[in-house]
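seq as requested:
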Amino acid sequence: MVITVANQKGGQCKSTTAQAIVSGATARGIKALAIDLDPQANLTFSMNGNQNSAGSYELITGKAAAADIVQHTEQGDLIAASTALASADTLLTGNARIMALHEGIKAIKRKYKLVVIDTPPTLGTMMLNALAASDSVIIPITADIWSLQGIYMLADTIRHTQKEHNKKLDIAGVLFTKHSTRTVLERELADVIKSKCRELQIPVFKTFIRSGVAVREAQLQRESIFTYAPKSNPAQDYSKLLDELKIK
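struct tokens:
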């Protein structure tokens, strides 16, 4: 199974969610691979990867084979990102502009039960490559009014990808992150977003990821939330998400 974590709006916990799924699956004894397609390389940092080694840039530009660039970490296997990804748009042409990642991971993905792709906060070439290479998409969001606009735009991109490049792609669901029920406004916004998702026929995960300082602390230590603070709210919630995804 290949899952892309995507949202063109920043600050929605894409990298956090990708890291939690891969590290959580690894802790459950599942062979999992993370692919970081974001030039900011937040997932690479959090998984204690090496940005200076060949990674996803070399993979999508055909300069290295996937099997030769996998890094092994305590949280799972990783194909790292680097700032070089920012220039990849200018190098990919023709069919490779969309299908480079799909072709690049064909041989290696059979070795893993789970592959998770982290994407940059933009509807650009890297996200399109991720969608074309995936079975499903998780859309992490926070309960604010701007998230609605992002869902509409991303839904259009996903449907275009389904039609033109990847008919098997589906939306696993919208995932509420950094969630709090302390304010009436946030509860109301969550209800509005869920209602709009129903109109768009986009599922919403039953699991909500609660906010917690342990997430940032674990990332600073380059450690999994499950080992750093296993009893924290985010760790418990991400464990429930793994169950909901049937990653057992």
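Residues 2-244 form a domain with the Rossmann fold fold (CATH 3.40.50.300).
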